Task: inverse folding
């Protein structure tokens, strides 16, 4: 029952966390803007968030059981949107390259799960060094994923070295 009350809040908060804000109202505005621009992008973002939250809760429970056995409550972090925004970005990325269908959903699920695991496993080591992870999991997984995705139908073939687009990808999150 907890997921029924947490998921809507987490979906909207995750969208707002892309802009480093925890606000359901801002998340709703972003969702509406995405849906107006492209329902496929909005659907990809929502699927990415849902998978990220589910994967994060599962990985957090596993990591907590190994590191510090005892009762852990992952729901506050899920509600804050901190576990969903990388999945949202990956869902949007996949949606720019794939048409909705089983492959689209599979790519989003795989990417969001990988980003969630990367976030949770790297969070403590990064924090010890004073580094926030922010969109690093999205950038890492997205960069690894792009060569495997089909080329965008409307995008011209890139010119120059293949790695030249990576800085642009890091600078343009959405």
Result:
């Amino acid at each position: 029952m907890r997921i029924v009350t947490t998921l809507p809040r987490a979906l909207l908060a995750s969208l707002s966390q892309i802009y480093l804000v925890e606000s359901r109202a801002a998340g709703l505005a972003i969702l509406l803007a995405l849906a107006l621009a492209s329902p496929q992008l909005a659907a990809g973002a929502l699927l990415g968030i849902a998978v990220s939250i589910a994967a994060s809760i599962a990985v957090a429970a596993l990591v907590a059981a190994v590191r510090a056995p005892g009762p852990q409550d992952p729901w506050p972090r899920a509600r804050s949107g901190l576990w969903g925004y990388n999945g949202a970005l990956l869902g949007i990325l996949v949606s720019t390259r794939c048409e909705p269908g089983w492959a689209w959903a599979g790519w989003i699920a795989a990417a969001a799960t990988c980003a969630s695991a990367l976030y949770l496993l790297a969070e403590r080591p990064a924090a010890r060094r004073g580094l926030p992870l922010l969109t690093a999991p999205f950038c890492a997984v997205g960069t690894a994923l792009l060569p495997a995705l089909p080329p965008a139908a409307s995008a011209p073939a890139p010119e120059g070295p293949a790695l030249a687009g990576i800085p642009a990808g890091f600078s343009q999150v959405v």
User: Anything to note?
Assistant: The mean pLDDT is 82. The chain has eight helices and no strands. The longest helix spans residues 39-67. The CA atoms of residues 64 and 72 lie 7 Å apart.
